Amino acid sequence: MAKARSIGIGMDYSATSKIALKWAIDNLIEEGDKIIIIHVVSSKLDPTNKQLFEDTGSPLIPLDEFREINVSKYYGLNPDREVLDMLDTVSKLKKVIVVAKVYWGDAREKLCDAAEHLKLDSLVVGSRGLGVLKRVLLGSVSNHVVQNATCPVTVVKASPPK
What we know:
The protein is an alpha/beta fold and about 160 residues long. The protein is about 40% helix and about 20% strand. The chain has one domain (about 5-105, about 115-155): 3-Layer(aba) Sandwich (Rossmann fold). The protein has helices at about 15-25, 50-55, 65, 70-75, 80-95, 105-115, 130-140, 140-150; strands spanning about 5-10, 35-40, 60, 95-105, 120-125, 155. Helix 1 runs parallel beside helix 5 and helix 6 packs parallel to helix 8.
């Protein structure tokens, strides 16, 4: 049997991050893998525990705990029912371990930090599909992560509206 892999998924509850999660579940996640849902909370939000975990991110939070609204709020998150349901389903059907980890700061830097510190085998992120000018001005998170992460990165684009 192959070694269980650690697969990180960048999650901000946007439509594109949900599409990336669904893609990973359908195409990448295999039985026995570990899924780490990586949240990066803007530095503007200042939950009391931010100082405690600012450099290393939160401890790994098991899915059962993460479902509890108090736990999510403690980390400054507002979890999405659809995401939790997808994670519950994949954890049961494919027998994978699902944990969450929260970082504070710039998503570009923190996703790269997560890839390195968590020794991820793969990282999946969504792409908002910014135009060239916006990407140059704002800097694309997915571009930065592809260039700088210490593991393979899959960027999942939202399909264009029909």
